[in-house]
């Protein structure tokens, strides 16, 4: 079996509001989550509402390239 065309792939979700505002002195970093998605069911980029510990609220986390 070929290893290159896996159906379930690992994706990294990054907080969009932290990236848009930039990393300031008060915020030590950018919130990131690692999850999996099915490439056949979700061919577009994944966006989920997750908790950002640097913004201290629920924000939209979008898929980024590895």
TrEMBL record:
Gene Ontology molecular-function annotations: structural constituent of ribosome
Keyword DNA-binding: no
Keywords: Chloroplast, Plastid, Ribonucleoprotein, Ribosomal protein
Annotated localization: Plastid, Chloroplast
Cellular component terms per the entry's GO annotation: chloroplast; ribonucleoprotein complex; ribosome
GO biological process, one term: translation
Pfam families in alphabetical order: Ribosomal_L33
PROSITE patterns: RIBOSOMAL_L33
HAMAP family: Ribosomal_bL33
Family according to the record: Belongs to the bacterial ribosomal protein bL33 family.
Protein name in the entry: Large ribosomal subunit protein bL33c
């Amino acid at each position: 079996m070929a290893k290159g065309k896996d159906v379930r792939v690992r994706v990294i979700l990054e907080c969009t509001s932290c990236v848009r505002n930039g990393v300031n002195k008060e915020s030590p970093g950018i919130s990131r989550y690692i999850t999996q998605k099915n490439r056949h069911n979700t061919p577009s980029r994944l966006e989920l509402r997750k908790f950002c510990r640097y913004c201290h609220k629920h924000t939209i986390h979008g898929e980024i390239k590895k």
